[in-house]
Amino acid sequence: MKKILAGVALAGAVALAMTGCASDGGSGGGGGGDDLITVGFAQTGSESGWRSANTESLKTALSEENGFKLVFNAADNKQEAQIAAVRSFINQGVDAIVIAPITVDGWDDVLTEAKDAGIPVILEDRTVSASDDLYASWVGLDFEKEGETAGTWVKDNFDGQAQNLVVLEGTTGSSAALDRATGFDKAIEGTDINVLDSQTGDFTRDGGKKVMEGFLQKYGNQINILFAHNDDMGLGALDAITAAGLVPGQDIKIVTIDAVHDGMQALADGKFNYIVECNPLLGEKVADLVKKVVAGDSVEKREIVPDQSFDQDQAKEALPTRPY
Ligand code: GZL
User: Fold this and answer.
1) What strand order describes the sheet that includes 253-258?
2) Given this chain, do its domains 2-141+280-305 and 143-278 carry the same CATH topology?
3) Which atom from ligand 1 is nearest to the alpha carbon of 175?
4) Does the beta carbon of 272 sit less than 6 angstroms from any atom of ligand 1?
5) Per-residue pLDDT tens over the stretch 250-279
6) Which CATH architecture describes the domain 2-141+280-305?
7) Which interval of the chain is the signal sequence (predicted)?
8) Is 203's C-beta closer than 6 angstroms to any atom of ligand 1?
9) How confident is the model at residue 32 (pLDDT cuts 50, 70, 90)?
10) Ligand 1 in reach of 179 Cβ (< 6 A)
């Protein structure tokens, strides 16, 4: 009898253990440990200093010690690669997907596939044109306000002087570039600022340098002001401006967006004239959103992280304690 009872007890214990594993498997569906939340993060690439700081922030927050198993992909600034990465995460059966969408359009199909697979999606940084019932939440920045702040600085300092301005645009079709342009144009509307040209440098230093070289060949010293949608393109333009025998920050006034370390150093050194910050440190907010959506808690559909702006004196003061 004892043997039979022992056998039943053993079978019960095994069944209980199996049940326990299965329920834990539900939370770590993507192959994480029993309690880890498996997150697939589809990053745009590594196109700028801002991107590096954003990647670092998310990797630090989505760490194993914080309860996550992170599957990371950087898409080399190509949307088709980024969409392929998201499909791979769906096939792996991760618990949640985070995307920094390179461009606003083209996301409906893969976001629908994630929804059909029961995998919540969180957008960070840039956003998409797809319906917001295809993602759980978006945490990012007010790009239109950033552009408007840059444009207001130009208006306040140069309206009435018939100044000529060129623009280095961010990645074509990205919400950051589209909204910064909208805000900037709104701010300078009605002024006598003359926009000579506006082209994309794809948010990279090399892109900024090459497009600025073209602007200088075409317009030479007619250019009074440069507005670059990010610091990195502005930093690339510095090389072109000095190669043309002009003094950046003096012959050509420069306003940019991001406030990464190298941009703030250029501002403190007098090569830039004004920077509008775009905060890349979104990791903790993203990690908190992932935990909530995986737990089935309700979350806000969108959260905007506040920014600030800097002139040359403020950059000198802020530099020693800047976190990125
Ligand atoms: C803005 C971000 C932009 C930065 C660029 O949130 O998407 O992309 O301004 C980066 O530096 O490449």
Assistant:
1) 194-200, 164-169, 225-228, 253-258, 274-277, 309-310
2) yes
3) 7
4) no
5) 999 999 999 999 999 999 999 999 999 999
6) 3-Layer(aba) Sandwich (3.40)
7) 1-22
8) yes
9) low
10) no
Q: Would strands 194-200 and 164-169 be described as parallel, antiparallel, or unpaired?
A: parallel
| CA nearest ligand 1 atom 1, residue | 176
Give the residue, by CA position, lying nearest to ligand 1 atom 3.
176
Residue 6 has pLDDT above 90, yes or no: no
Domain layout of the chain by residue ranges: 2-141+280-305, 143-278
pTM comes to 0.90
Give the nearest ligand 1 atom to 280 CA: 6
232 lines ligand 1 (CB under 6 A): yes
Question: Does 16 score more than 50 pLDDT?
Answer: no
Ligand 1 binding pocket includes 79 (Cβ within 6 Å): no
Write down the residue that tokens 């309700």 correspond to.
Answer: 298
Residue 5 contacts residue 13 (beta carbons within 8 Å)? no
Residue in 278, 281, 305, 309 to alter for ligand 1 test, most ligand atoms within 8 A of Cβ:
278
Residue ranges in the chain assigned as alpha helix (H): 2-27, 49-61, 79-92, 108-116, 143-158, 175-188, 205-219, 231-243, 261-268, 283-294, 312-318
What's 143-278's CATH class?
alpha beta
